[in-house]
Amino acid sequence: MESNLAQLVKDINQADYCKIIIYIHTGSEVIAKPMTYEKLRIKGDRGKIFLGDIESNEGYLVSDNNEIIRTDNLSRNNRLSYTIRSEGIVLLELDIYNKKDKERQVVAG
């Protein structure tokens, strides 16, 4: 059986477009930082991946120790959504699209 992290990496690597929202918890507030990527390609390093902005070091190291929840089905609406949590706290949300759905989102939005 494939791990949740391995499935997430596979889904990102097969997608044309990925929107990631990073939730930065400062202690006094939560800051949401959206990022978008076309043709994002990642690979796991010893069962971990970094999702976020490497230059600013804003993001999270994600592994199967995190709660990785897939909430949509690509075959139904051409989009996958993931929520990544640690100890019940939402760290990241991802929307992963194929090109056809991305174009529809741009026209509609």
How would you describe this structure to a colleague?
By secondary structure, the chain is of the alpha+beta class. The chain has a single domain, classed as PH-domain like (Roll). It is built from 3 helices and 7 strands; from the N terminus they run H-E-E-E-E-E-H-E-E-H. A 5-stranded antiparallel β-sheet has the order 2-1-7-6-5. Strands 3-4 form a two-stranded antiparallel sheet. Strand 6 and strand 7 form a beta hairpin.
Tag the structure with descriptive keywords:
disordered C terminus, single chain, alpha+beta, five-stranded antiparallel sheet, 109 residues, two-stranded antiparallel ribbon, PH-domain like, 23% helix
What is the ordering of alpha helices and beta strands? HEEEEEHEEH
**What is the count of distinct domains?**
1
Unreliable residue stretches? 101-109
Radius of gyration: 14 Å
Overall number of strands: 7
Which structural class do the helices and strands define? Answer: alpha+beta
Neighbour order of strands in the largest sheet: 2-1-7-6-5
* C-alpha geometry: globular
Which fold does the CATH topology refer to? PH-domain like
Largest sheet: 5 strands, antiparallel
Question: Mean pLDDT across all residues, rounded?
Answer: 85
Q: Work out the helix count.
A: 3
For the termini, the CA-CA separation is 37 Å
Q: Which secondary structure elements does this structure contain, and how are they paired or packed?
A:
Elements: H1 4-14, E1 17-25, E2 30-38, E3 48-53, E4 58-63, E5 67-70, H2 74-77, E6 79-86, E7 89-97, H3 99-108
Antiparallel strand pairs: 1-2, 1-7, 3-4, 5-6, 6-7
